[in-house]
Amino acid sequence: MEVVFATHNPNKIKEVQNLVPSGIKIKSLEEIGFDQDIEENGETLEENAFIKADTIYDYCGLACFSDDTGLIVPFLDGAPGVFSARYAGEQASADDNMRKLLQELDGQNNRSAYFETVIAFRDSEGKRFSFSGKAEGTITRNRHGLNGFGYDPIFRPIGYSETFAELSLVSKNKISHRAKAFVKFSQFLSTT
Fold it and tell me: GO cellular component annotations, sorted alphabetically (predicted)?
């Protein structure tokens, strides 16, 4: 079975490549000739994920999936949330986003947070399915580690002394929000 992953992010492709069943071939947007940006203007992670999956399904008619991930900080009323990738502005880098978040939490002891990933899947007949996963933890006061991407250097999962960026990809994939969502997605793909 071939499935298109509706992302231009090579880090996401790399991270999920080993999370789907061996009989599934993931195709990139480049492989199907899609080079446009898709505006994510949904109010929830699920809405954003389906905006991307629906766009790609309408473009190629192939089974496809997309994910959207947000870092949710309850102290900040759920921010960055759906704006995680552009928290410090539309053209902001991961460093800019982390800097803004750390500034907003400066002096705060309540640093609990969680990542949530929602996967939106359109099968070859156009049916829609969604799968989600969460990883709970805290926001550190400083950056630690060089692995991963996004907020990984400042997110320490519960039960660990390391941030996501200090963990190996293998270790992170055992506990991450994305891995949890992809386990559910993979189980679904294995039964269809």
Answer: cytosol
Give the residue ranges of the annotated binding site for Mg(2+): 39, 68
Record the tokens describing residue 155, joined without a space.
């997110």
The values of phi and psi at residue 21, to 5°, are: -55, 150
pLDDT digits (tens, 9 = 90+) for 1-21: 889 999 887 777 776 777 788
Query: Domain 2-191 - what CATH class?
Result: alpha beta
Tell me the pLDDT tens digit for each residue of 114-170: 999 999 999 999 999 999 999 999 999 999 999 988 999 999 999 999 999 999 988
Enumerate the active-site residues.
68
Predicted TM-score of the model (pTM): 0.90
Residues annotated within a binding site: 7-12, 39, 68-69, 149-152, 172, 177-178
For the record, the structure tokens of 41 come out as 């203007």
For 33, counting Cβ atoms within 10 Å of its Cβ (0-12 exposed, 13-18 middle, 19+ buried), the class is exposed
